[in-house]
Amino acid sequence: MNALQKTLAIVALLVLVSQTVRHAYVLWLEPRNSVLDKYDRPLKDEISAATSLDQLLSRYDQAHTDAEAARKEASKNGEPEYKLAQTEPFKSERALHEAISQWEARSKEIHALKFYWLVGVALSALGMLIYILRRRWLGLTFLIAGFTEIIYWTSPTFLGISTREFDRLLCYKLAFSVVSLVLLLLVIMTQGIFSQADAQTEERATAAGT
To answer: Mean pLDDT, the chain, as a whole number?
Structure first.
């Protein structure tokens, strides 16, 4: 069992350390500007600066009203709408619609992150308790289940529009990843997974059993 514990602990450490570093990089160091920003910078700045979903919705209402009026005008003139897709106000309407959808998706992800991370911690705590009570395989099973939940829900989010809600999600994931790393180190030390003495004891017990 000691070899399995070491393998699982090393894999979990590698994943948590690498994703913690990535969260910090994306949140604080990753460049967010593009050479194409000068063509749509005002709208992009508005989306990035929005502090609430209501602000984006208010801006979208205006863009949608303008787009509907433009659609009616285009219909009267016999112009197909697809030719106007990259012009205003259709471009702003589409960008704001996507930003609102992304904001709502990130809000749901934050809610799920909090819930499932707590579930993972609860499973891990139960696993530790069972392990201490000498039901080692059952305890290890709960620990694996708990840290699987923790690692999955704190894993990186690779796609997202730069909004305050996206940054808030990154902050949560970074904080939870750091706490998860500390919890994993506590489990490793409590169980003495990398303890040479424990490994030698287990080897003697295995040899005596044979």
So the answer is: 85
